[in-house]
Amino acid sequence: MQLTKSEALFAEAQRLMPGGVNSPVRSFRAVTGTPPFIASGSGSRVVDVDGNEYIDYLGSWGPLVLGHAHPSVVAALMRAAENGTSFGAPVEQEVELARLITGALPSIESLRLVNSGTEACMSAIRLARAFTGRDKIIKFAGNYHGHADGLLVRAGSGGLTHGIPTSAGVPESYASETLVADFNDLDSVEQLFNSYPNAIAGIIVEPVAGNMGVVGPTPGFLEGLRRVTAHDGAMLIFDEVITGFRVGAGGAQGLYGIMPDITTLGKIIGGGLPVGCYGGRREIMERVAPLGDMYQAGTLSGNPLAVSAGVATLTELRKPGVYEQIDRLATRLTDGVGAAFRINRVGSMFTGFFNPGPVESLAEVEQSDATKYGRYFHALLERGVYIAPSQFEAGFVSTAHTEADIDATIERVREALAELG
Ligand code: PLP
């Protein structure tokens, strides 16, 4: 595979930007080598600047549930752009997006749009603190909620990939308000509530972990979180930035039948443009400015381009059978390669682990052979299949993938695994 133009661009990018990238995991540090610079995407495929084509399972890290350049999304963007890109004043599409979100997620009666998942989670935590009058929060080791200071404590995604469990620059005093429990281990949560009675503002959790590789909740785990938070008067915050409109129209909360107090969304609701959202019960959201005393704002929040792409995406997802289709394709993929190695899958999100045993905890994730994953990643890239350049991430199937894409992928995965030995 020729990467001549990508190599030249990457060399220059490294002079101009830390690691040559604007988000760490794109740099291929975990798997080594040169990241292809992407020139275009259409449907299930992306093409790099050297003309190499890949079947894409990165999906821009989750937003592109309809695949690349979906005609409805492109048309909505063109229409919006022609009418002006930003006003700093309310626009109709914000109301439409809010209607679509609240209609799909009954736990969200009222919401605020922001520009990223990071902002959504940061604001959700502030809101939980404002509402409860308490300071401490619980997060799970290996869960990632963006890069706000208090959430970069034992974080997943790039934090795991790059071995930076707690970032430099986060004040100790601030990080000490974040308590860390183990995912799928309710005892570890109950111990914290016993140690800090009436002090914990809330728990933030990825209901299906995606940032330590995909790890679904074990039976009773989410129900247990609901029970202990309700008992203590703490908020249960579901970070559905990945799972919202991914694992079903009602997100993970719909799939597992749990009502969180606050939900964060991102990725899919922006259809590939920068959007985030936090929302919940009306009485909680009424604490947000201008109604309440919790301040949070944004120059470009509810931006007409971004919300138009979101509305177009969520409208497509309302068509009958969409989730059945992507789940069926994802099942075809994971069944096809599942005999060869361990795959965790929830809906259309999945991760393959080089670990013979079940993977239900961060400890079991960390037993996976990440070096082997790097070799596997390159063996697939060479064969025109693009997956996440790190063991600790999810892969995504979109509505644009075809059975032929999936079967070609299975074939190439088998070849790649055979090459690894
Ligand atoms: N929460 C989860 C579960 C995520 O996966 C991510 C990003 O990958 C975030 C929050 C942060 O979102 P963003 O990268 O848009 O700031």
What order do the helices and strands come in, and which of them pair?
Blueprint: H1 4-16, E1 38-42, E2 45-48, E3 53-56, H2 71-82, H3 92-104, E4 110-114, H4 117-132, E5 136-140, H5 158-161, H6 172-175, E6 178-181, H7 186-195, E7 200-205, H8 221-232, E8 235-239, H9 251-256, E9 262-265, E10 276-280, H10 282-285, H11 304-317, H12 322-338, E11 342-346, E12 349-353, H13 362-366, H14 370-382, E13 385-386, E14 395-396, H15 403-420
Parallel strand pairs: 3-13, 5-6, 5-7, 7-8, 8-9
Antiparallel strand pairs: 1-2, 2-3, 4-10, 9-10, 11-12, 12-14
Pathway: Porphyrin-containing compound metabolism; protoporphyrin-IX biosynthesis; 5-aminolevulinate from L-glutamyl-tRNA(Glu): step 2/2
Cofactor: pyridoxal 5'-phosphate
Protein name: glutamate-1-semialdehyde 2,1-aminomutase
